[in-house]
């Protein structure tokens, strides 16, 4: 059973993780004279080394390799690699937008993204939607429709964010890719691209000649590692519904930073009516998640069990029991292959005796 102390610790950890992720949004300003594209490239590079260090410390490499062994044919490998450019593009716009005056538009995309995912779940996976979720979708849709009718368009950066992530998660879900396995694989595939980009656009030279970047770039990696670590700790301590509700804090932090630090005007990203409708929709979503969490908590007390945890990084001692079906199939395949080799060897010996 989850204790009140665990829930409190998990809540504080989740808030800290979302705050750190939001701080990364501002790093483009701190890392000038690096361009937005150079900052995004450096983030991929520092994220890669940070994640390698984190996985090594937690001794989770076997967990990653076990999954990769389940990819049996070219089609599965293609579907595994296909989402990588999507993530690379999302990392790019997250770091590029604040430097180029589109921070508020990207923030709006992050507000809309959870609602887009609910619609995707409804129509692609036939998941049930509550009345409050329908109300939130309609509310946000009316706000966007007003801006399109009034001004003729909505920012491409907003659409890029809110419509870019769903295909990524759909493809990852199709192959049941564990989050850490997917992320480190994406970074490995993106690594040659960012190295070439940094070499071609002078990102290495700027970092070498500007002394402040010597400590800011490692700090970028440290904050990325801290945010990922805190997210994993929170996912282990909190129920799924509460963990998902707290994820709405990130776009709220991004919005505050865009107005207070990036000095953006509300009207730069859209009309006041659209923002009001989207904020109302977000509040409805939070209320729906909170009501769902409280209802499940009451049910848990009645039946004596907990809501499942978000097991992104299970302890090694429990890994065998929590492997996905594909990993178990791969294990059985290796055992069968091993016994088949022994049988073939015995068959050859018997045939050799008959020939004698």
UniProtKB/TrEMBL annotation:
The keyword Transport applies. It comes from the Bacteria. It is found in: Cell membrane. InterPro entries: RarD (IPR004626). It is a multi-pass membrane protein. Its main location: membrane. Keywords: Cell membrane, Membrane, Transmembrane, Transmembrane helix, Transport. The chain crosses the membrane at residues 12-34, 40-57, 77-95, 107-124, 131-148, 154-171, 183-201, 213-233, 240-261, 273-295. NCBIfam families: rarD. Belongs to the EamA transporter family. This is EamA family transporter RarD. It comes from Psychrobacter proteolyticus.
